[in-house]
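Support reply, case 0932

Customer input (verbatim):
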Amino acid sequence: MKLIYNPIFLKHDTGMHPENKKRLSSLGDLPITVLENGEEYLELIHTTEYIQKIKELSAQGGGHIDTDTMVSKDSYEAAIYAVGATIMASKTGDFALTRPPGHHAHRNFSSGFCIFNNIAIAAQYHANQGKKVLIIDIDGHLGCSTEKIFYDSKDVMYWSLHQFPAFPGGGDAHEIGEGEGEGYTINVPLPPGSADEIFMDAIETFLPVAKEFKPDIVGISAGFDSHQYDLLLDLRLSLNIFHKIGRIFAENFNNIFATLEGGYNIEIFPRCLYNFLDGINNNEMKFSERNTDSMIQTFYEYEGRKALTVQLLKKHWKSI
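Our regenerated output:
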């Protein structure tokens, strides 16, 4: 897995916003990829009216489109190429190092720094070709829109590990899908203060379900804001975990790709990213730190939530 990157993503100008261009410029000089324009794929997920709204706002110089999300004069261009880069990554098994991020972007409105839902568009693209798609969302926030878009689908499984409670709300154990999609949404709500051993237990507990689904392609919503020194959440993962989960995903699935979501500490983010890539690519871990532990009360709370999720999914999957 290699990085797909282009400086166009730096032109999404959000000023001093937590989701700003320093997230990518912190990585230094990167190889530049000639990108596919993703505009033609937008309507796989988003409404014509919403797409036009973003395009017009950018043309007018930008502004806030919701409380948390900004558009600048070049944001529409950056966003459509973020979609294109994610589609490219899904075809080549690479990592789309893009911004703006996507997993909070709904069909007809923005949310949580996100404009177009890159991972959902790529998933729908492959689902339309008859493929079964697994989305694993390791961002510390629930990908609320990705969950909602595929909530009634049996062709796309959505598995999220996220802090609960936290923005954007939702994502508790009871949310397992509906209709044909019942059992195809897996939410692992992690209590604030959850550290390495809880996160790894969550991966190991629900990995058999994801494998039983037998996906043809696996997309990772790769957020790194669950690191202990990130700015926006209260999870406590060490750098080591991102290498471990990269290795686990590579060992258990074929046809993996990823696209960037969160991760806002610009000193820590590059280390998380490169550890994840080294894990996927079966390379040695470059960055390490002491493993973290959860308080006993946090672990007890997690165990109760996990037990409920397992109980609800048991009637749908033999492996749990």
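We compared this against your earlier run and they match. Two observations from our side: The two ends are 30 Å apart (CA to CA). The chain has a mean pLDDT of 97. Please reopen the case if you see a mismatch on your end.
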